[in-house]
């Protein structure tokens, strides 16, 4: 049986019709991962629609268990740098 490994940090991004249009956060996370060549990579996961379209884009950050609404690069930057 193979062992499943889990990331230390992960960002779940809603990929619904409204949230999926906001690509700047995903681009920022990919940039962070390239610049910080460590084991502390942040994995990005797409979620199905979170049904919170009025608050798009929705981002969920683990392990801190934080949900962001109307997320932008600055909000994610502050969260990641904690």
Strand line-up across the major sheet: 2-1-3-4
Total beta strand runs: 4
From the structure provided, what is the oligomeric state, counting identical versus distinct chains? single chain
Structural class from helices and strands? alpha+beta
Evaluate the radius of gyration.
13 Å
Question: What's the story with the biggest beta sheet?
Answer: 4 strands, mixed
Rounded mean pLDDT score: 86
Distance between the termini: 36 Å
Q: Spell out the CATH superfamily.
A: Glutaredoxin
CATH architecture tag: 3-Layer(aba) Sandwich
Shape: globular
Strand fraction band?
15-25%
The tally of domains stands at 1
The tally of helices reads 2
CATH class: Alpha Beta
Helix content: 25-40%
The topology string of helices and strands comes to: EHEEEH
Low-confidence stretches: none
**CATH topology heading:** Glutaredoxin
Describe this structure in words.
This protein is of the alpha+beta class and 82 residues long. The protein has a single domain, classed as Glutaredoxin. It is built from two helices and four strands. The protein has helices spanning 24-35, 73-81, and strands spanning 9-14, 42-47, 59-62, 66-68. A four-stranded mixed sheet has the order 2-1-3-4, with helices on one face. A hairpin with a 3-residue loop joins strand 3 (59-62) and strand 4. The model has no long low-confidence stretch (mean pLDDT 86).
């Amino acid at each position: 049986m193979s062992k499943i490994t889990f990331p230390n940090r992960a960002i779940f991004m809603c990929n619904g019709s409204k949230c999926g249009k906001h690509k700047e956060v995903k681009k920022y996370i990919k940039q962070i991962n390239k610049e910080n060549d460590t084991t502390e990579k942040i994995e990005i996961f797409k979620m199905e629609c979170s049904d919170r379209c009025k608050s798009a884009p929705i981002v969920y950050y683990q392990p801190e268990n934080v949900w962001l609404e109307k997320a932008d690069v600055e909000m994610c930057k502050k969260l990641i740098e904690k």
